[in-house]
Amino acid sequence: xxxxxxxxYNKPGPRYTSYPPATFFHEGVNTxxxxxxxxxxxxxxxxxxxxxxxxxxxxxxxxxxxCNTSSYPHHEMxxxxxDALIREIKAVSALLDTSRPLTQIHWGGxxxxxxxxxxxxxxxxxxxxTFRPSPKAxxxxxxxxxxxxxxxxDQLAAMGxxxxxxxxxxxxxxxxxxxxxxxxxxxxxxxxxxxKQNNMEGVNxxxxxxxxxxxxxxxxxxxxxxxxxxxxxxxxFSYAHVPWVKSAQKKLEExxxxxxxxxxxxxxxxxxxLTQNGYTAIGMDHxxxxxxxxxxxxxxxxxxxxxxxxxxxxxxxxxxxxxxxxISQLQGGxxxxxxxxxxxxxxxxxNGFATVRGYELSPKDIIRRTIINEIMCNGYLNFPQIASRYxxxxxELKSLVGFNEEKLKPxxxxxxxxxxxxxxxxxxxxxxxxRNIAMEFDPLLEQSKGQYSRTV
Length: 456
Ligand SMILES: C[S@@+](CC[C@H](N)C(=O)[O-])C[C@H]1O[C@@H](n2cnc3c(N)ncnc32)[C@H](O)[C@@H]1O
Ligand code: SF4
Fold this sequence. Notes:
Blueprint (H helix, E strand, L loop, with lengths): L2 H6 L22 H10 L8 E7 L1 E2 L11 E2 L3 H19 L7 E9 L7 H14 L1 E12 L6 H10 L3 E7 L3 H6 L9 H10 L4 E8 L6 H13 L4 E6 L11 H6 L4 H17 L3 E3 L3 E3 L4 H7 L3 E4 L2 E4 L5 E5 L4 E4 L2 E5 L3 H11 L3 E6 L2 H16 L1 E3 H7 L4 H7 L4 H9 L3 E3 L3 E4 L7 H6 L17
Parallel strand pairs: 1-4, 1-13, 2-3, 4-5, 5-6, 6-7, 7-8
Antiparallel strand pairs: 8-10, 9-10, 11-12, 14-15, 15-16, 17-19, 18-19
The structure holds S-adenosylmethionine (SAM) and iron/sulfur cluster.
């Protein structure tokens, strides 16, 4: 892929982890709305239950971090937080049809593995007794390897965890120092060997490119080292620089961020190395072994996406989020909890719910979301098929998303996209600018109030 072409499309835009993006969430959505939608979710696409548990605590803050984090709490506070999580699970599950299969539990953060596994077990016991986990349920945790003891892996496996996502970010000690991050406590080979001993199937690695101190050569070395442990999935996140939201990121400007050209070159070396080593590229930043469910789902145009990343329709259902700042992603809307830990605990202790903002989708939004998701995940749209799913004409569908052949011409001319009478298909390099292509189908974009990171 010609870097000049990529540069042409490098402009601010949403990451589309939700549609509409979280910048559209507003405070008109409250606990009452969430309660009603939870009840409604038992009848509208009830297939699977997915659960997200947010642990917002970190022992040390990485300057690049764009996640919702708080400083590590003392014992009493942690206990209150875990009790609130359990209370919230009980309040929501009382409204849910718990005979629906539980197919996914995802622990994210913050750093869920920074808290003692005993706390995790307390919550897992409640979840596994309240819901009906399917035999193939995916139970995953985002871990910072700087705090991951080998014995923790045994304990997590005993609780049912079968997938760990290890945040490597970069192997280079100098880069880690510049971003205020500790290296892995144990060599990664030992961590992965311990996971395999415990029959954990899924090894995910997270890397980030675009950090101070990184060069295309250094990042190539990082990817090579990552390949040595042969992860099932690997993500190369493009560093999202949003200092107007995350002021700590300004510190990275002092150390000197790579230029846009260098960043693109990092993307390119990673893409080439990973695809040459047999990995399937998924979306713009995910890679998976060809036998991995994600790669198979992509092949079958059956890939899905939520705030936690790419997933398959088989395992993912509506997502019920628990914990401070967590977002529930239901068929009819998004519901986000209090960000402040004390406010969250207080609200939960009052009535079991802590929703403070969100977005409820209109029937038109739901159709637009389908279009954006299909582009972002599968790079494929069949207009008459989608139109018939919503019982509208192809013409109506196209006008709902502001379809305009002229807008797509540059992508066609650059060999990124193929447009036929009834369908649209991203060509191999099209996934590198998939956010831009999705933006062409997003009529709400003009009303965006927030600022976004750059697309490449
Ligand atoms: C909640 S964090 C991971 C869990 C754990 N706390 C850790 O640091 O390993 C999820 C992932 O988001 C990615 N991430 C965080 N901030 C980012 C940013 N500003 N731009 C791009 N990716 C980011 C990192 O790769 C990180 O592994
Ligand atoms: S990257 Fe992970 S460990 Fe670092 S501050 Fe963010 S959530 Fe915490």
